[in-house]
Amino acid sequence: MPNTALFWDFDGTLIHGEDTFFNALSRALQEHGICAPEAMVWETLRHSCTWYAPEKSYTQATGAKWWGRLFAGFADLYGRLGLPEETWGALNAQFKAEILDTGTYTLYEDALPVLRRCKALGFKSYLLTNNFPEVAAVADGLGLRGLYENAIISSNLGYEKPRPEIFAAARSAAQGAQQCVMIGDNPVADIGGGKAAGMAAILVHRQAECAADYICDELYVVQDILQAQWRP
Q: Distance between CA atoms of 113 and 27, rounded to whole angstroms?
């Protein structure tokens, strides 16, 4: 069996990228009678979501504390919109409930077949994602349970891709792997970070100038490449 570890990004790679955080925050505001300008919502997210500033580590604000850090960023938006402070908790709760709801997400139709095939071939798969702490539970709810060994999640570590620390954690999780392959849709976070960490890298679902070893429009093509290049 091949001694190869596959590291799969989640958002935009296994699931469709659908501006989930923007949509959830906008809906929460709308249900409280507030129609915030899109630019203001995006500005808040870019200042609050840790993956927009990967150069910054936050090892003292991981896990449950990550949510507190995020909501502290939302507080500025609520204040600028003139929302009473007693409503902020309900807004945050509604936002988080939507983010944790598996119904919010849509898998690419080839994601499960490809992960199943990779497992059958003997590859060990891992999730390696810049995301909220509970993303593995969402992945399991979408049918991924048993198809990956472990989930390396930025918000549980305090480092975002393409930081070397998160890739070092990924390699540690896959101890003994002779070859590591990063599969993702982000040319910088996934491909640049993976290559810098000494991994092979496959860019999916987009065309971009980057250091990827392969560029694929569909996950089915990734499966064929993996089988051809890394199976004995």
A: 33
Q: What is the pLDDT of residues 89-119, one digit of tens each?
A: 999 999 999 999 999 999 999 999 999 999 9
Q: The tokens 């049918």 sit on which residue?
A: 143
The tens digit of pLDDT for each residue in 25-54 reads 999 999 999 999 999 999 999 999 999 999
d(CA 125, CA 226): 12
Output the CA torsion 24→30→35→39 (10° steps): 0
> DSSP characters for the chain?
---EEEEE--BTTTB----HHHHHHHHHHHHTT----HHHHHHHHHHH-GGG-TT---TTS-THHHHHHHHHHHHHHHHHTT--GGGHHHHHHHHHHHHH-GGG--B-TTHHHHHHHHHHHTPEEEEEES--TTHHHHHIIIIITTS-S-EEEHHHHT--TT-HHHHHHHHHHTTT-SEEEEEES-IIIIIIHHHHTT-EEEEESS---S--SEEESSHHHHHHHHHHHH--
b or e along 25-55 (b: 16 or more beta carbons within 10 Å of the residue's beta carbon)?
A: bbebbeebebebeeeebeebbeebbbbeebe
- Paired with 8 in beta bridges are 127, 183
